[in-house]
Amino acid sequence: MSGPAGEASGLTVVGVRHHSPACAGLVRRTIERLRLAYVLIEGPADFNPYLADLALDHELPVAIFSFRANERGSAASYTPFCVFSPEWQALVSGRAAGAEILFCDLPAWDPAFGERRNRYADPHGARAEAAERALAAALGAEDQDALWDALAEAAPPAELPARLAGYFDLLRPPGTDDPVEEARERFMAAHAAWALGEASGRPVVLVCGGWHADAIRRYAGLADGTRPEPREPEEGLRTGSYVVPYSYPRLDRFSGYSAGMPSPGYYERVAAGGLAAGADWASDAISAALRAAGQVVSTADRIAWAVHAEGLARLRAHPAVLRADLIDGALASLVKDALDAPPAWTASAAVPGHPALAAMLQALAGTREGRLAPGTRRPALVADVEERLRAAGLEPGAGRRRIALDWAEAADRPRAHLLHRLLVLGLPGVSRSEGPDLAEPGLPRESFDIAPHPHWPGALIEASQWGGTLAMAATARLAARIEAAPDSLSVLAGALSDALFAGLAIEGELLARLSRGIAEGHDPAGLGAAGRRIVRLHRFGAAFGGAARPALARLCLALAERALGLVEAIADPRASLAAIDLMIACRDLFRDCADDLPGLAPLRPPFVAMLGRRLADRQAPPALAGAALGFLVACGEAGAGADEAARRLRRFGLPDSLGDFLAGLFALAREEIAGEPTLASVEGLVAAWGDEDFLRALPSLRMAFAWFPPRERERIAVAILRRSGAGEARAEAEALSWMRQRTAPLDQAAALAREARAAARLARYGLT
Amino acid sequence: MARAGRARTEGEARQRPPAEIVHAEELARLTAEDTAPRPPGWRLSLQGVRRFICGDRPDAAKVVCAPALVERAMVTLATSRALLLIGEPGTAKSLLSELLAAAISGSSTLTIQGGAALTEDQIRYGWNYALLVSEGPSERALVPGALHRGMREGRLVRFEEITRCPLEVQDSLLSVLSDRVLAVPELTGEAGMVYAREGFNLIATANTRDRGVNEMSAALKRRFGFETVFPIADAAAERELVRREAGRLLARSGVPHAPDPDVLDLLVTCFRELREAVDAEGTGLEKLSAVMSTAEAVSVAHAIGVKAHFLRGDAGRPEDIVACLAGTAAKDDAEDLARLRRYLDQRVAGRKGEGWRELYAARHLLTPQ
């Protein structure tokens, strides 16, 4: 443990592994043994004024959630505690002993932490890993966790300090500096030196990760004894630390972070009742989990498992059945299959090799969820959100409730803004169940579901990393979304839509990026999807307030200009299918928005002329030609009508092109063109093909007719049946059965093709 | 003296002596040093068996696998459930079962080789028909199968490729494994019931490539503990193993020098990349349907060494790898050959190093054999 010099000077540094029950016991015993003046704990020093928050009657696990945010984005990290954390035991027993308790590590926003999400993720270099592997191999343990259990959790209390000292010395030889961690270690050491001065001869205990212990002892001797103060956060950086509820699944390393102990559910029982009690709990929990998953775990299996685990423990000279013995035993006696990959806890690698193993590890993790005591300090955002929800009458009640909103009602718009902001923050318990994905013409109607959710309080506190008020937080969250994908048109358009629905101010930056993205866009599919969204938003008119309208108008014009150049250049059949959305966006613009967009009128003649050229072009891909024709028909351009359509149809009436052509045509002008004459000529063309041609054309034809809603498809079927001579009643009955086919049409087609091949073969050998 | 001398000559003349003869001295030493308690019927304690198989140092292991796997396997055998080693072909399942049998029972020769033609009396017992006809059923006329002997003598029985056997043959193990008794209804008296002595158990091996051919019944599965054996995860360990084993085989074939280390390196890298379908940079490859096992790599290294020494008088060149790959990796699958060709054309093409360049230059040798 502490070197002789350390004890003599009154400083005891207890190096621990985070979330280790054995270390928690050691910390508790050390604090109870010495009559302490100070207990210093590895934790954020800027939280010291709020230590009373941790003394409340929380249900563990909880964590200190710390964030830093500026206009460029925000980052968060956690300092988690469970009942058997050494740090938590230091807090509890330090309080009981009447010592002064302080966190002594740098604040979470300090650059020394980099991007780390978890304060207690121990740093491990390649050298330490190699040393650990060698030790594990020498002791016959399979991996780091098995090694730790055999070394520390199963150690007699009296031997534990010596074993820990040897173990941590091996990971990081005494006297070595770790440049990455040095700032933190010097800060903690300075705290220790200061506390020694204040303690006037009474002992001081410092609890920290074992990696740091030796360095802190050394640096403490070099510190000048003044109390270190964390630097002020740099200008414009917003920081904060609050207690949030945490959960065992998050603590467990398979779904959570990469360091610390796995299986918190199991170690909680070990801490409370010892290794034997832990093993009993684990075998019950694993059996229950496997049985719930439909696996057979008979009593005979459990006996075999218990015997196997006991045998492994004896072979490995463990004083009791440890976690690795349990899982190894379960693997040998419960899994009756070959594994697909080496089991995870033997390879420090990612996935368990078998679903049953995944279920076992999940069972060992436990499901405990933390809960905050009433009166815990909360960030400003929580009060802001609660106040706004109360004012709008939208508080989550006892059960789920549905809220219908109509944007035509002036009173509903602020409520819609509020709910959309909550959606932007991704808070649990709020969902939008109905409403236009792409806004329909006219004002939107929406409905939301609000229900109490167990994770709501924690999620709301954690959302405060984005800002102190709801509007601020939602804006910052959207900004971060854009920052993560600054060049993706779909993300930008999605952010624009969310901002408008949430009633947030539209930032100039977003608009500039969007116009640039549209002007430089080369991908017709991406441009089309974003374009349709923007055009629909524009058609909502005044719903989003006066400021949004001119901005949306500018984006619409930019879209039309870009489409003019892009559509002219499309030569690839696949790209032309992808361009259909873009053509639809343009059709909506030119057909429905001409009155609101004065700038659009000059673009119309060149656009129509360009489409005329593409239609006349013999090399144009069929889908694009179809879409061009559809556009002209839908916009009522001279010379484009049903007759023109029929004439063009014949040109594209080959099995390879008809489907694509019709897909373009129907997508743009389904309502205008789908009369009897067009369908009759399609039918005539198809009837002239051989079976093989028909089967080849079938997939693309099906895609074309997918643009019709089912009711219209049924109407078309009736018309076809009537033309082929069926009576009214029979046509309707037959059409209904066409619409509700039990076998997928493409399978039927495959069967037909196979039958034809068989028939041809039979004919060849004269067997018909 | 004379007898020992003759035994050695016989051992040397054997193509492949069993593990208990190859490692006879070590086994004797371990038995003498072993003080830990032994399960009934075992020649060594569990610790002793682990020392024998995993060695005192990681690089002294006789088979490259996780020590936990060996531990689990031993405990399964000691808790008198049968052990089933399952895995891809060429992952040293049979070697592991041989070592376990040699260490636990002192002999690894009670072996049943599974196959489609295996019948029940080959496993249990048969008759010497001449004696049977002249004397009637008697102990003298009975020809004990491996299972019969293993039970009577309290030794481990190895059952290779159990899933290659018809289901009814597999199921004839059921009563033996649960009641530990084998009835010989033709004989009367004590000889009519063979009770298994302490030390008897069964180690079966099965191939994941045969999965579904003769799926084991649930009842039989319940009587086995399953252990999956994986290809060697560590590249350096695999290279070392191939070097050692290929060197041993070459020496036996009369080739005086060890395989060329650079060629061996290329060979193991190719095999690992093709097996895991990922190259050194982590880019995905097409997976071959053939098995690229370590055992296969050893036999390729052996073939290269023999060919190079006896035909050319050197230690092997990268081009030999290409020639051998066609025969091992592509076997009779034209698709695999095409994949292998794409591997050489696309992945090996840009690699630096003399060896890779020679390998690439020799790609025309990749022709169906």
From TrEMBL, chain A:
Any Pfam family the entry gives: DUF5682
Annotated protein name in UniProt: Uncharacterized protein
TrEMBL record, chain B:
GO molecular function: ATP binding; ATP hydrolysis activity
Pfam families in the record: AAA_5
Domain AAA+ ATPase per the UniProt entry, residue ranges: 79-234
Top-level taxon of the source organism: Bacteria
InterPro entries referenced in this protein's UniProt entry, alphabetically: AAA+_ATPase (IPR003593), ATPase_dyneun-rel_AAA (IPR011704), CbbQ/NirQ/NorQ/GpvN (IPR050764), P-loop_NTPase (IPR027417)
Record-linked SUPFAM superfamilies: P-loop containing nucleoside triphosphate hydrolases
UniProt cross-references to Gene3D superfamilies, sorted A to Z: P-loop containing nucleotide triphosphate hydrolases
Protein's recorded name: AAA+ ATPase domain-containing protein
Biological source species: Methylobacterium aquaticum
